[in-house]
């Protein structure tokens, strides 16, 4: 019941050993009856270990915020969890985050922001609608290419709006991390653990403006 993606279930059907990251992930896979035919082993992550080993120095006068957006659902792929992505909510909250931060940046002139656009095709290959409003904005940078991990040491704060691998990579650093948890939210006991490292952003309750 804890494994909702068909692809992950198929992994257990097609192999004799499955390597996963972390004890929580191992227990989730072992909760499936398919684990009877597949041995689940918990291992570490070389990539996350490398990120956590980096020493990121922040001695800039102008603080740099890295905002990593998720792509829109568009009803274009199978979603194995309930409720699925809600593009309207994501659009609204991305606008709240982006334009709220822009207001702070313009008022203080002490920060700048890089928006890491999702490498996948958004809206039939186009950027989110709000991107057009950011052209020629001072201290606002759009990044359509590049490696997210390589950008971490160039920034002082990280914001993510979807709890994906990007969040794991961000919290492996010692940078302050903010995460939007109100659209796709893990169970309460997992949120409690998450709050030990991450500051949560919640729809309606949180407005930068």
Topology summary:
Layout: H1 6-13, E1 17-21, H2 23-30, E2 39-43, H3 46-53, E3 63-68, H4 87-108, E4 111-116, E5 140-143, H5 148-152, E6 157-160, H6 165-171, E7 177-180, H7 188-194, E8 199-201
Parallel strand pairs: 1-2, 3-4, 3-6, 4-5, 6-7, 7-8
Keywords:
alpha/beta, globular, disordered C terminus, 209 residues
Short description:
This protein is an alpha/beta fold and 209 residues long. The protein has seven helices and eight strands. Helix 7 (188-194) links the parallel strand 7 (177-180) and strand 8 (199-201).
Description:
The strands form 2 sheets. This protein has a 6-stranded parallel beta sheet with strand order 5-4-3-6-7-8, with helices on both faces. A two-stranded parallel ribbon has the order 1-2. Helix content is about 30%, strand content about 20%. The protein is of the alpha/beta class and about 210 residues long. Strand 3 (about 65-70), helix 4 and strand 4 form a beta-alpha-beta unit. The chain is globular and about 60 Å long.
Tell me, briefly, the overall form: globular
For the residues shown, what is the average pLDDT?
Answer: 80
Rounded Rg: 19 Å
**Helix count, per DSSP?**
7
User: Which range does the strand content fall in?
Assistant: 15-25%
What gap, in angstroms, lies between the N and C termini? 40 Å
What is the percent of helical residues?
Answer: 25-40%
> Order of strands in the sheet with the most strands?
5-4-3-6-7-8
Order of helices and strands: HEHEHEHEEHEHEHE
- Helix/strand/pairing category: alpha/beta
Q: Sketch the major β-sheet.
A: 6 strands, parallel
Poorly predicted parts? 205-209
Q: How many beta strands in the DSSP annotation?
A: 8
